[in-house]
Amino acid sequence: MDCKYIILVGDGMGDYPLDELGGKTPLEVARTPNMDRLMLKGRVGMAQTVPEGMEPGSDVANMSLLGYDPSVYHTGRAPLEAASMGIHLAPLDVAFRCNLVTLENDGTGIYRMLDYSAGHITTEEARQLIAALQKVVASGPLHLYPGVSYRHLLVWPGGREDLATTPPHDISGEPIAAYRKAYLSEPVLLEFIEQAAGILVDHPVNRKRVAEGKRPANAVWLWGQGKAPSMPSLKEKAGLTGAMISAVDLLKGLGVYAGLDPIAVPGATGYLDTNYAGKVDAALKSLETGQYVYVHIEAPDEASHEGSLAKKIEAIEAFDKNVVGPIVEGARAFSKVNLLVVTDHLTPICKRTHVADPVPFLFVEDLNHAAIQSGTADTFCERTAEAAGWRLSSGVELFAHFVGLDSKKS
Q: Which residue of 2, 227, 243, 257 has the smallest Cβ count within 10 Å?
């Protein structure tokens, strides 16, 4: 009997206990009846998705959950996004993530990172801004490519990949001077950054945003650089074909390198207003021909970076109601289904960025035929996963267990 494999990822869903929640986490207090019911069918545990010494980015954590050891295959975040965007990187090309951000002068000449996403600028507005910035790179070595919302890409042929750049969501509210030093030794990057700021500040899109009380995209921020990685496909590793469902280029790029179909879902935004139903439909349809689907929901992570507890709880509840519930129902159409519900990394509200702590997961083997345990369903959260005592040393080990592989060979 052929098995279908479904991984549902609530990005950044995990957190720390909060005083304002009576010592509970957002995942613990959110209304998640679908995940809680699955607790009666499956097993919970904790997995270390970020290898020791590596940055706890979504690139590292999701690569691990896909079954690839980041210490072996990870070269940077931006090359993965390039793959999603159909951008071929030559061997010496270095790709950078190019965020549209909002910087704020505090009145003393000190600039701070006010918003890593420029108020979650729309893709339509962002594309107008990126089009205006093309004149900056027209006669030089750099190449600029538009992406989704605030997420864009810069490619520097023959460039440096060893710059000490910093993700903008790691420095929310902080002065940028110390982090900007990474670009001072590279005139080609510094010139692009400075010329881009001059164009963005007076652009009609930003003038309109300011007039509407929205944050302007008044600067660019370069980070996550690297060269193209070399990875075997999941078919080569595990005999699996399937699809990647995500709004963000990072995950779709990981899917490309893993040999998965990076399905574009209309209305997928990577935020609270994403097209949940479209993602679910695409995932279930992909399983009609493939064996494996990876469904990634970005909203909990975005809310965490904003420091919004209310939005994080809303995002977790939407994940449970609009993704987990319909997926479980739709999976009834298949004879055998293994289901994994997991968060890639923790993004604590108190830190507003990622941490490398172990993450909770919920694994149900043979979803449609698994015996229902007696008793009352407990809450799927960090506390119950920790208490279960099942600890896995890596996302690679979790993936191997999920699909029935030897983790040492994966």
A: 2
Beta bridge pairs of residue 297: 10
Identify the CATH number of the domain defined by range 3-74+229-403: 3.40.720.10
165-183 pLDDT tens trace? 999 999 999 999 999 999 9
* Helix-, strand-, coil-residue percentages of the chain, each rounded to 5: 35, 20, 40
Give residue 406's pLDDT.
Answer: 63
- The domain segmentation of the chain, as residue ranges, is 3-74+229-403, 93-226
Greatest alpha-carbon pair distance for the chain in Å reads 69
Provide φ and ψ at 47, rounded to 5°.
Answer: -130, 140
Q: What token pair was written down for 250?
A: 């990072």
Strand order in the sheet with 292-297: 261-263, 242-245, 292-297, 3-10, 336-342, 359-364, 43-47, 391-392
What element of type H or E holds 7?
Answer: strand 3-10
Pull the structure tokens for residue 30: 């959110």
